[in-house]
Sequence to fold (501 residues):
Amino acid sequence: MTVIAHAGHWIASLLYDAPVALIVGALLWQNWRDKRRKTGSGH
Amino acid sequence: MNIVIPFAHGIVGKRDIPIPDYVFGWAAGVVLILSFVGLAVLWPKPILQPEPAKRLCFFPSLLVDIVCGVIGVALFVIVVYAGFAGVQVGTANLEPTFVYVTFWVGLAFASLLFGNVFGPFNPWRAIARAVAWVGKTVSRGALPEPIAYPRWLGRWPAAVGILCFAWLELVYSNKDDPSTLSVLALAYAAIQLVGMSIYGIDTWTERGDAFAVYFGLFARVSVFERRDDEDALYIRAPLSALFKLDIVPGTVALLCVMIGSTSFDGFSNGVLWNDLAPDLQKFFVNDLGASLNTGLELAFTVGLLFMIAFVFGVYRIGVAGMRLYDPEKPWLVLARRFVISLVPISLAYVIAHYFSLLAYQGQAMASLASDPLGTGSDLFGTASVGINYGVVSASGIWYVQVAALVIGHVAGLMVAHERAVSDYPDSRIAVRSQLWMLGVMVVFTSLGLWILSAAGQA
Fold:
């Protein structure tokens, strides 16, 4: 609970996650596209 | 007069940088993405295998081993003696600073710059080799053959050894006590001598001696290599020796322990952990009946193990992603194939996290060398030399930390890319699989910068 109560101490550090979010988004998109391509070639 | 110097990790001070810290994280992410694109376009075939190397000069291997071995044993004896005979104050006794700064941090830097420096100075290896030589000479014949080292044991002894040292350094409340350190140093040396006598000196040193394995991995990033069969010193492409590493069981665990423990060292100095640790401590004290001190140690143990598990989890996800392009290979096979890409990252974490410790606390060796026991002696006339905190500014340290993390992670990407283009005949598959390793590198870079930034502000 202390962690949430003191969120102001560390919440700004979530800005460090922007590049991570970008890469995760790119990976999910690539995964989705590969799956779609596989499904398309299966029909 | 003895100068008492506070023994603390990574004293940094206030930075004066023109842009917010997190912007460095974004810039590092951009550099990694651009590096990934550059590798995909410009590096279609393996270039680090076979290892490109060139003979540099003559290197008297046996003579160097004898001289350095004697120095290594002498240093070991002096440090252990100081721990027992000197004042039992961590900052005034030679041993804690020697172990945690000169040995643990200094040798990591030296391994990067000069190659396997620890090898010839390794005191327990020098003792074992001397005993073996005497045994051979006296018996006038070959000594009994060592027992075959079990394949399954791999680098697990080294992984456990580094975990134990990390626990000592980061968790144990009595870590600065000189006599305790001396007892542990003797116990460690005894274990190494037993291991070498059972499995052979070289085999045990390469697999079981935690520190030899640890510094040996970093030395593989270096451009220098000694070749004993030719008595020659070679210069090679940086990182290329990583591809000659025999990937045995325990190597993935060892790298996760190395990165996770350094991460926890920084994380435990940050705001988030300082908010969380008292709650964990209360749980162990109030609910499990631990003393305040034990409760804190248990809380820190949980934090250390959590950080190692986190590092393993990130790498696990990266390998699982790569497996989408190579589903025939078991997960563990892929994890071991690509684990060498974690070596430059681990080294980057060490440089980024401990640079300030080495730059500041390393200077304490000048006074401690003159007064190793803390009894007021002045053997070399340097006992009154203090620490010059102006040698590098807080901003300068931050720039070194950012540069180390970015260069280390780009190097990790290069190693993973080299492995991928040699393993996958289709370069498109190689590049696509490495998008997952890019993700791993970006996570570790962001984590490293966040930890360092938070530690600097706490």
Chain A has a mean pLDDT of 77. The first helix of chain A runs from residue 2 to 5. Chain A has three helices and no strands.
